[in-house]
């Protein structure tokens, strides 16, 4: 048995979670039993499980000391990062105006590291793996630290196409629904007043892909989301917008292409064409990296299992 002592009962309560739900996650994932006893936690189980539980509990307790939330998602993330320590996976926290964003999986760590080291990074994988969220966090951090002068966030509005004219409102009102996930991520990283000020002063730009043509984006952190819905021509156009002092992150899920039948995806094409090019990195996520509700991972896995096997 391993006994851990904590000097602040209030923080220990946050660590355990409501009705000890965080401890229940640890017990299930690490195959241990954890019993609260006043300001102590008694941990029973095999050596590896006890040691892992100790490291995760102390990491989460230190997180609570810093005034950060401890959700079941953070518990899962701490467990995954503990597992990654044995493989020496690189990566670190992203500090933004509103929060400290921690990687929750080894792939997320590698992704953050790649973004910090390369001018162009492709983040490829299923929904819920944090591809866009972490890219926006890195952009917010870079702007806060003065590494870039502005943030440019873009998405293709594939479903709108020629039908934009039939939608009510001006052009901004027509395309904003397609860009909403980028707004949501940005508001999670920065106070609403700073986001509004940045947009008003053109320090933050959120625009559909079509608006990028003919521009050169210098000293900017540029993100293209849902890139699987670009054509090869659109992708080439976007990638060649990269100017001096800029960084670019391109995210997408090759299994969720909404292009018309017979039209190739620019994301898969670009990853293939640029393989091995200096300054370019590609990070692949899979179902084990999904950090939304646990059911999302099972849903994706079920659909993947049903999908037809590619012909050889």
UniProtKB/TrEMBL annotation:
Q: What is its main location?
A: cytoplasm
Superkingdom of this protein's organism: Bacteria
State the Gene Ontology terms under molecular function: ATP binding
Record's Gene Ontology CC terms? Answer: cytosol
* Domain PhoH-like protein: start-end pairs: 101-304
Which compartments is it annotated to reside in? Cytoplasm
Q: Which family does it belong to?
A: Belongs to the PhoH family.
Name this polypeptide is given: PhoH-like protein
Record the organism.
Answer: Aestuariivirga litoralis
Lineage at the top is:
Bacteria, Pseudomonadati, Pseudomonadota, Alphaproteobacteria, Hyphomicrobiales
